[in-house]
Design goal:
- 55% of the residues lie in helices and 10% in strands.
- It has helices spanning 34-65, 74-96, 102-107, 121-137, 141-148, 156-161, 185-190, 198-210, 216-230, 242-271; strands at residues 3-6, 9-12, 18-20, 26-28, 109-113, 163-167, 192-193, 234-235.
């Protein structure tokens, strides 16, 4: 999460891949990469072609040989079957599974709205119709070309429908933080701690976990250096010793990470049609 400086100190900004909940928790909604999108689309296309050819060659041909269908109706049946396999079936699957398919399951993705919500029939319908052109009629060329030049690897159907493919596989919850030190309890309730750079965040976490085993002189020196790096990301900055500041920042960041992951898991469960508390299927809203 980027940081900007305002009248009250550093403030966290929500990037385009984050959604801010009503509790001011930023959900990091990561889209899957172009390579995984291509893999998922390829699997779905192969399955659609396999179904089409199997029904056409075995089912329809058997009906013609049995005299149930005539040769003159073969082309009509073939066209209808083409529409069902490459348009009706993908639209139905995405609508009923809320953005999932076998290819997307294999790639670890899910189609969601750009605001992170579950897609509906309208989104699946637009994606399915546009997909006939950009995926099947152009052998994926249009979808690949558009995906290269969009930040979320969106294809043309995603841009028209207002959707993208979100990474559906969630990381495990981090272990609970040791807790905010007692002198910083009041500060933690109003603290604005922006996301630290990955390297600095790892250094603060390791220091907070292993400070008690360090040499006192090295411990004080490292604490002072890390506290100086952390202060630009904290508002207000408490007037405490550097080591105490690092312990408070580590505790606040870890607890907020856990809250964000819990909220994201609950959202993913709802998108999948499950109660986040019990795992039971939710009644589908009309």
């Amino acid at each position: 999460m980027p940081v900007t400086t305002g009248p009250r100190g550093p403030r966290a900004l929500v990037s385009e891949d984050e959604v801010l909940t009503g509790e001011a928790v930023a959900l990091d909604l990561q889209p899957i990469g172009l390579g995984m999108r291509v893999l998922g689309g390829f699997i779905d296309a192969v399955l659609a072609w396999a179904l089409y050819l199997a029904v056409l060659l075995w089912g329809v041909t058997s009906l013609i040989d049995a005299g149930i269908l005539g040769q003159e109706t073969f082309q009509i049946v073939a066209i209808v079957l083409l529409v069902v396999c490459f348009a009706v079936l993908p639209i139905t699957v995405e609508t009923l599974t809320r953005g999932r398919s076998l290819g997307k399951l294999a790639a670890g993705g899910r189609i969601v709205r750009t605001d992170g919500g579950a897609i509906g029939f309208r989104h699946a319908f637009i994606r399915g119709l546009v997909g006939v052109l950009e995926v099947y009629m152009s052998f994926g060329g249009i979808a690949l070309l558009v995906g290269v030049f969009t930040p979320r690897a969106q294809r043309l159907g995603d841009l028209v429908a207002g959707t993208y493919s979100e990474r559906a596989r969630r990381p495990a919850l981090p272990p609970p933080a040791p807790g905010v030190p007692e002198p910083l309890a009041a500060w933690a309730e109003i603290a604005d701690v922006a996301r630290l750079p990955d390297r600095l965040d790892a250094q603060v976490t390791r220091f907070a976990a292993g400070a008690s085993r360090m040499d006192p002189n090295s411990r004080a020196r490292i604490a002072a250096e890390l506290a100086g790096d952390v202060r630009p990301f904290v508002s207000p900055v408490p007037n405490v010793a550097p080591e105490l500041l690092l312990e408070g920042v580590a505790a606040v960041r870890r607890e907020r990470d856990r809250a964000a992951l819990r909220t994201e898991r609950e959202r993913a469960a709802v998108l999948g049609g499950e109660d986040p508390m019990t795992g039971a299927p939710l009644a589908r809203q009309r």
